[in-house]
Design a protein that fits this description.
four-stranded antiparallel sheet, six-stranded mixed sheet, 115 residues
């Protein structure tokens, strides 16, 4: 069965950095677009970024362009999100998700708090 396990969140000051990881199993990861989404308390889910199966094409929400970088290691079934120059408004639960639109199966999430 599909399993996605996120890690790497934490508490960081504005301007700081974090690297989120997502370990994937139970499906053909190397053939699947993947996404990162986030949800802050009381707000809708926001599709942060996605990446194609080969890791050669990526798209970003305007709010994170130039600050976040999505990447993957298909040899290890791992998805990553590098978060730089973090802002208070980046505070949210971050999830990795199957597919290119962020609406697919998600993991349990990892909390990022910028304060």
């Amino acid at each position: 069965h599909v399993q996605l396990v996120e890690s790497g969140g934490g508490l960081v000051q504005p301007g700081g950095s974090l690297r989120l990881s997502c370990e994937a199993s139970g499906f053909g990861f190397e053939n699947t677009w993947m996404s990162w989404v986030r949800q802050a308390p009381g707000k809708a889910v926001e599709h942060v970024a996605n990446i194609n199966a080969r890791g050669t094409v990526a798209y970003y929400h305007d709010s994170v362009k130039g600050r976040f970088t999505i990447s993957r290691d298909n040899s290890k079934n791992m998805l990553f999100l590098q978060l730089n120059n973090l802002r208070i408004e980046d505070t949210a639960m971050y999830y990795c998700a199957l597919g290119d639109n962020g609406a697919g199966i998600r993991g349990q999430g990892t909390q990022v708090t910028v304060s």
